[in-house]
Automatic annotation (TrEMBL), chains A, B:
Keywords: Amino-acid biosynthesis, Aromatic amino acid biosynthesis, Lyase, Phenylalanine biosynthesis
InterPro entries for this protein: ACT-like_dom_sf (IPR045865), ACT_dom (IPR002912), Chor_mutase/pphenate_deHydtase (IPR008242), Preph_deHydtase (IPR001086)
Name of the molecule in the record: prephenate dehydratase
Annotated pathway: Amino-acid biosynthesis; L-phenylalanine biosynthesis; phenylpyruvate from prephenate: step 1/1
Source organism of the structure: Orbilia ellipsospora
Protein encoded by which gene: PHA2
Keyword Amino-acid biosynthesis: yes
Ribonucleoprotein is among the record's keywords: no
EC number, UniProt record: 4.2.1.51
Length: 295, 295
């Protein structure tokens, strides 16, 4: 049975997408404390696969994950990307039964625990029902549910499955997020990349690169190669290189499989324009509707 | 006397750069609780200027600031960028006199307060001297000093000026950050942009744009215009547009003043390739050494 590492503790959104994508009758699941632990688990061979949050449609990039892919210390030479998965994120307000007599009121709630991203996504609900109540930032929505479970006057913003693991908590309100299209994209990492999918143009490739600091327009030259070979960009981000200040590592995802001949030619041509590059592998598109950065 | 809003409370790094750039004998200073309050203060005319953190050479972009420049709700139609300022960030360990008898030891420290970015920047020091001591994330290094001041067994990672405003605290260790080149870049906002500087090629311009979702290669076409007109990029970032998922607003800074004829021509040409664009104005380069994204 193959094993999958995810960002725990159990009942996080990472756990939810892992259960969907890698059913527990076929995979064993390993909760990790930090995203870096997932990279370590895969690199060391402790698990076969890892599921890491990459970006949220409302909040943008997950910076810790970007930094791990930058791999400045070369700690993860074997890590590849072999898949992606999307999760529709629906937040619940979890609390104690006595808090739900009638409607949700700030009179029965002393504080709200959640992750900063979740607070950001539920602003209108909080303003309407719990304005002025103290908010406590914690490291995961799962941890938030844990803390609310121990405090009869507190509530948490967390996933619906967090209610099922805490018998003292119940769902006081569902779908309290502002946007109904709130989606998180996860990447699946392993030591092997994926074969081309059977459907044409259904693969994407993930890579990082740095450009020569002294060569004007080098970033533009790199992006031109993508255009020349018809490889649409689906994601671009950057992080400090930490070699010299204000020098960046770019993280790019594009349409096409690394084994396709036009992609091979393009990657070869890119060598001219970049200082360093690393291709993390190809995988089948996880979302059937179009996600393109530039068209 | 002109007034400047900054991210308070007093003794933050934002305060420090504001004091350097806008001396208190010439400007009144208004501390704000959140970065959005600085935008509101300038837009409403409550202050003439605002200083907002934009990026750190170690940690990258300040996402809250990027989102405010995205201005999705059109709340800040008058905001322009009229300057930039750099601050060398040096962290101190602040604590109580009895904790400094001899060397710093985890036996005399129950917990460490700081901002998550500061913890990230002092990892080797913390591992060496305070391994395993509880860390408490708070919203600013200034707040961290405040909390340590009230708790005789706690310490804080904060600026040296935070020690001067808390008489019970003293500097237990200085320059505890990992990288000596740890720098934060701030932008200065106002309702007016700056005139071209007297030195040629010493101005930069800040703008945001979105590209047509349906037009392949539109981002590349936009970047080509910068190259064609010799306008080097010095910064590029993106944030979710929040119009449809996986559609982005790009935030770009380039060399050149918006009143220069080649920049005017380039901006005119860009209109073809983007769905929307907003030029936030031009300002003199704050750092005399070269900071170029792509050359």
């Amino acid at each position: 049975m193959k094993s999958v590492a995810y960002l725990g503790p159990p009942s996080t959104y990472s756990h939810q997408v892992t259960l969907q994508r890698f059913p527990p009758d076929q995979y064993t699941h390993l909760p990790c404390i930090q995203i870096s632990d997932i990279f370590v688990a895969v690199e060391s061979g402790k698990t076969d696969l890892g599921v890491v949050p990459f970006e949220n449609s409302t909040n943008g990039s997950v910076v810790q994950t970007l930094d791990l892919f930058c791999d400045r210390e070369k700690s993860f030479p074997s890590i590849k990307v072999c898949g992606e998965a999307y999760l529709d994120v629906h937040h619940c307000l979890l609390g104690h039964p006595r808090q739900s007599n009638g409607e949700i009121s700030k009179d029965t709630v002393s504080r709200i625990f959640s992750h900063p991203q979740a607070f950001g996504q539920c602003e209108p609900f909080l303003t309407k029902y719990l304005k002025g109540v103290e908010r406590v930032d914690v490291s995961s929505t799962s941890k938030a549910a844990d803390l609310a479970n121990k405090d009869p006057s507190a509530v948490a913003i967390a996933s619906s499955i967090a209610a099922s693991v805490h018998p003292d908590l119940q769902i006081l309100a569902s779908n309290i997020e502002e946007r109904s299209d709130n989606t998180t994209r996860f990447l699946v990492i392993s030591k092997a990349t994926a074969d081309p999918s059977s459907i044409e143009n259904d693969d994407k490739t993930f890579m990082t690169f740095t450009v020569h600091h002294e060569q004007p327009g080098a970033l533009c030259d790199m992006l031109m190669v993508f255009k020349e070979f018809g490889m649409n960009l689906t994601s671009i981000s950057s992080r400090p290189s930490l070699i010299v200040p204000w020098n960046y590592i770019f993280l790019v995802e594009f349409e096409g499989h690394q084994d396709a001949s036009h992609v091979k030619k393009a990657l070869h041509k890119m060598n001219k324009y970049c200082q360093s590059m690393r291709v993390f592998g190809s995988y089948e598109r996880g979302l059937k509707r179009d996600k393109r950065l530039d068209g």
